Amino acid sequence: MKKSLLIVVALVMCLTVTAQVDSTLFKRTQQDTSKLLLNMDAVYNRPFLSVSKLPVAVGGYVEANWQHLGTDGVSEGHQFQMRRLTLFIASSISRRIKFLSEIEFEDGTKEINIEFASVDFEFHPLLNFRGGIVMNPIGAFNQNHDGPKWEFIDRPISATQLLPATWSNVGFGLYGKLYKDNWVYAYETYLTNGFDDQIISNTENKTFLPASKLNKDRFEESFNGVPLLTAKVAIRNKKIGELGLSYMGGVYNKFQEDGLVLDEKRRHHSWALDFNTVISATKTYFNTEWVFNKINVPSTYGQQYGDKQMGGFLDVVQPIVRQNIFGFDRSVINAVCRLEYVDWNLGEFDETGEDIAEYIVAVVPGISWRPNSQTVIRLNYRYNWQTDMLGNPASKTAGFQFGFSTYF
Hints:
- Helices cover 6% and strands 54% of the residues.
- It is mainly beta and 408 residues long.
- Strand 2 and strand 3 (56-71) form a beta hairpin.
- The longest helix is centred in the first third of the chain and has 20 residues, at 2-21.
């Protein structure tokens, strides 16, 4: 890992030196707006900086923030955070063979992850092959998660607490798109390494899919030898918006060892529905995603481990000012609001028949300023209500968050 980081740093330094010699060698790629873009296109729909005729282009984004939050009157005070620094390196190996990698440094260097590192072989618009570390296309956020594209500082709770946000694995798959008039149809499907038994054996003491992100061994071996299947279909109309339906499922437990049967195959299933649109008259942007999980939990585990989970979010972004601000010609100020809900345990107590009330509700109003399309400055107010499984009075978390995110 250290050797890889040195290579990345050396490459960036070399490009910087070249820029000092002759800045005209640099060219920033423009985003493709000639076609209808989908969430699946987000991996390449980013600004890259290329040098003359070199086949390698680089880019990235950064996000940092301040927050002051308190739960039931108890606060940790003012907190400054460097959420993440992400580097992109792309290369056109040939006309129809492309490589792209995404390396993320979180919380300084507390976590360093290769989130994407794949080679694409383009055979036909409807048939393309991708292999390497791929981003599992479950929902929309997992594919289209770059900080500068969002008006909110925190990632959606359903994307981080029901699904493991920026969930990627080693594997292979196919993808394709078909354009017809004002419509575009697309699909993706991959077989990769997947989850492990940390879904239920974790420090959260509940069924928690994101716990499997702690298993770094998934990039070199499968936990149980059974591939994880992820598949998505999406459709977009120029006037209506984009609708996506995705599935992710497989076996999460180790059911045998050296030919000895240990347990039955225990499966997990996740379905996600996502939709986004813009109302042309008011330029109001709506973006929503809904997730449902079903997990085969052993009967030896208590009722606190839910076998069904559900949640989602709705973002509303309303431009209110479009004008020159502080010399930024294309500035946009937005009024924004996010509504969130997650239920980790859709069940009832066997003894009483009452609902298991382990859920969270959140409202996040705010305002954002975009001095340009690739940079956002955000002010959010977060208010959460979270209950425990017994349905005791909800703990309340509230406070302000301020920060920025930008491509570079």
